[in-house]
TrEMBL record:
Protein's name in the database: Predicted PurR-regulated permease PerM
Provenance organism: Micromonospora cremea
Biased composition (Low complexity): 359-368
Family: Belongs to the autoinducer-2 exporter (AI-2E) (TC 2.A.86) family.
Biological process per Gene Ontology, one example term: transmembrane transport
A single cellular component GO annotation: plasma membrane
Keywords from the UniProt entry: Cell membrane, Membrane, Transmembrane, Transmembrane helix, Transport
Length: 382
């Protein structure tokens, strides 16, 4: 082997080693900063969803970007506060009434009286509690030990929520400057393609949020009907809480089912069974019919792609993966449409292409002259 071949082999070996080390370093960096990266991804998700509202408000009513952004975020917080008040106020009232009746209910449970006492008596739970009362007291004492860990988790959750809000606000506020700089650096041709990709990404995220809200409204309305027919008290509040929980993909309906079924069983065993059966059937319909169809129409994805994306992302990344699976699939489709090979590019959605301008008289005549110059006699005859 000559000296030149030896130098080439050594250079390739060093390049491979460098790439492996760089990949390992990048993966270690991502793992070490995974919490901050998750916050940034969630903030970007909400920023993309709120940016069209800020742009519209800035164009029509408020010229200053900072004021328009502040008004949109305040409106979003006001809406969330109204929903929280509508849910928490009746629940706190019921908790107060429950605390007042707790000693009487406890006496009824111990004596096997009342709906809860009868239910525990049927399933044999009252006898189990009386036989293992000492073990249950020990278990209750152990539950007080991880209070510091629970408090730490609450503090971290609040810090993460504040961080996501601040990041989303800054992203929306600085979006025009960042976009103009990126497009200027990319040039005219690439800048136009990046602008199209950005519009497609924004439309995907907005469509996903709209479709998810529609599904949650359907879930809340059907839950209210079932709870009202079975006579469960506070059916509207419980249905609203179920609709909010249903915003979480895949597991949201399960969380709502636990809440609604628990309220149903507290009212009567028959109502609890009816509510539980309803949610078992509805969750299958939502996961395999409503979500693929509605989200596929809103995001312009194939229903099979929607379902497979959610299942794979939930398996790989848990709840966050299920939440971001459909927007990520839409973003990948937009990137493939612009930059992928012709064989891998997905077909454009049905209907008029928003990127194509309608051809006016001047455009038609210009196209005709261009076609006349570029096409030969054989092509015109063909």
């Amino acid at each position: 082997m000559s000296n030149a071949d030896t130098r080439v082999t050594a250079r390739r070996t060093l390049i491979v080693i460098g790439l492996v080390l760089a990949t390992a370093f990048a993966l270690a960096f991502v793992y070490a900063t995974r919490r901050v990266l998750v916050w940034a991804v969630v903030a970007a998700f909400f920023a993309v969803a709120l940016k069209p509202l800020v742009d519209r408000l800035q164009r029509r009513f408020v010229p200053r970007r900072a004021l328009a952004t502040l008004l949109v975020f305040l409106a979003a917080f006001a809406l969330l506060a109204i929903l929280a008040a509508a849910i928490l106020a009746p629940l706190l009232n019921e908790l107060g009434r429950f605390a007042e009746r707790a000693p009487e209910l406890l006496r009824d449970v111990r004596a096997g009286r009342g709906p809860v006492g009868h239910l525990l008596e049927r399933v044999g739970a009252r006898q189990y509690v009386s036989e293992h009362s000492e073990q249950l007291r020990t278990f209750g004492a152990r539950l007080r030990e991880p209070a510091v860990g629970v408090l730490r988790s609450v503090v971290e959750t609040v810090a993460g929520l504040v961080t996501v809000i601040v990041l989303a606000y800054l992203m929306v506020l600085e979006a025009p400057r960042i976009t103009s700089r990126v497009l200027a650096a990319a040039g005219d041709g690439r800048g136009e393609r990046l602008r199209r990709v950005g519009r497609e990404v924004s439309r995907t995220v907005t469509g996903y949020l709209t479709g998810n809200l529609v599904i949650s409204v359907i879930c809340g309305a059907l839950t209210f009907v079932v709870l009202a027919l079975t006579g469960v008290p506070f059916a509207a509040v419980i249905a609203l809480l179920v609709a909010v929980a249903d915003l979480i993909p895949l597991v949201g309906a399960t969380l709502g089912a636990v809440i609604a079924a628990g309220a149903g069983f507290l009212h009567s065993p028959t109502a609890g069974v009816v509510v539980l059966v309803f949610f078992v059937v509805y969750q299958q319909v939502e996961n395999h019919l409503l979500q693929p169809l509605i989200l596929a129409r809103a995001v312009r994805l194939n229903p099979l792609t929607v379902l497979v994306s959610v299942l794979l992302a939930a398996e790989l990344a848990g709840l966050l993966g299920a939440l971001l699976a459909i927007p990520a699939a839409g973003i990948i489709q937009a990137l493939l449409r612009e930059y992928g090979p012709a064989q891998l590019r997905p077909k454009p959605p049905a209907g008029p292409d928003p990127r194509r301008r309608p051809a006016g008289p001047a455009h038609q005549s210009s196209t005709g002259r261009t076609g006349g110059r570029s096409a030969g006699p054989g092509r015109e005859l063909g």
